[in-house]
Amino acid sequence: MASSYPTAISSALAAISPSSPSPSPSPPPPSLSKQARFGFSTRSWRRSRMSSDRSPSPPLPDRRVVVGCGSVCVDFLAAVASYPKPDDKIRSTSLEVRGGGNAGNALTCAARLGLNPRLISKVADDAQGRSILAELEADGVDTSFLVVSKEGNSPFTYIIVDNQTKTRTCIHTPGYPPMLPRDLSQTNLLSAIDGARIVYFDGRLYETALVVAQEAVRRKIPILIDAERPREGLDDLLKLADYAVCSAKFPQAWTNAPSVASALVSVMLRLPNLRFIIVTLGSEGCIMLERSTEGDSQGEVDVDNLLEILKQRKDDVSTIPTYVSLSVSQLNAKGIGTVHGRLLLGTAEKIPPQELIDTTGAGDAFIGAILYAICADMSPEKLLPFAAQVAAANCRALGARTSLPYRTDPHLAPFLS
């Protein structure tokens, strides 16, 4: 059953729109230009873009078309002094209405870094759906392949950001009707992935995603999967993946392995096509297991012991992201098996407490940076600190996209030159 969008919020969104003269505007037809479509972030984006354009732009990758299939939504973010107790009444310290959704956020990040992203998703022809389209287009995301339903509601999320614990709580309302494979014609599918360097999936819209992934495999286009948590259809997508980025809890939840390190070995054994897997650990950084088919092995080592060695060797003083790794080895997980590869430990930027505002979308920013790194053929030694730097920038403002960096950001210059 379709969810009704809150009347007060619909009115608020309509009031913000520069092209809406009344609280209940008639929906513009899909053929209208992006400038005429409903939007709430275009002016702020232009100010940021004009500021960024003053700096020289570093060279772009030769192949920079990326395709994403997954979720988009509107985020209603309320920051509070501390998370409320049951039946409490509190006031927000600040409020933002921004675009959200894993795929929408990651592709926005990729666009700001200089890639040409195309998005496959679905919204309704309502106020929030038009705002989603407008914001994505303003940031340079190609929405030509985004389906607009004449009826139903677009997805939205209420997010409570706790200023005390620096955590966020999300309450999501899915869009209706859901996206199905029949919504994406064969012509649009082929056009969407034509010339793509990589295709990315956030694990949602799994039936449509599987159709897109299978076509990408036929065309030998690499696939990156965001494995946030076990979902319906995710196993089928992972079997086709070349790269995976997952949350801290996913590897063990998916494999039942006794530790994160042994779980990564298990994932690589179960998914023989996977080139690398990265598990993100928030302020603790990330771990990458990279499969290797070449290079001398230094003998078989216990993967859990190796991870402990890397933790002891990491730089705990540096405030900027770094990494530490050892040579290619036969990485053994007791009772699971052995993988020929390399383990890398990446650190996160140490953000001063007064600058840490909101972690919403940090993982999506990390993935947007990974997409760029793959297009630019970055080595793992460069990829991990770069993605961590981009994710840290995103934590310095309220919302998943507010402080996503542009490629002219001086903090990114060492990685992009």
UniProtKB/TrEMBL annotation:
Q: Where is the signal peptide, in residue numbers?
A: none
Q: Which CDD domains match?
A: ribokinase_group_B
GO-annotated molecular function: kinase activity
Q: Which Pfam families does the UniProt entry name for this protein?
A: PfkB
Query: Which PANTHER family does the annotation name?
Result: KETOHEXOKINASE (PTHR42774:SF3), PHOSPHOTRANSFERASE SYSTEM TRANSPORT PROTEIN (PTHR42774)
Indicate what this protein is called per its UniProt record: Carbohydrate kinase PfkB domain-containing protein
- All copies of the Carbohydrate kinase PfkB domain together span 69-294, 349-405
The region called Disordered is annotated at: 15-62
Sorted UniProt keywords: Kinase, Transferase
Record-linked InterPro entries:
Carboh/pur_kinase_PfkB_CS (IPR002173), Ketohexokinase-related (IPR052562), PfkB_dom (IPR011611), Ribo/fructo_kinase (IPR002139), Ribokinase-like (IPR029056)
Top-rank taxon: Eukaryota
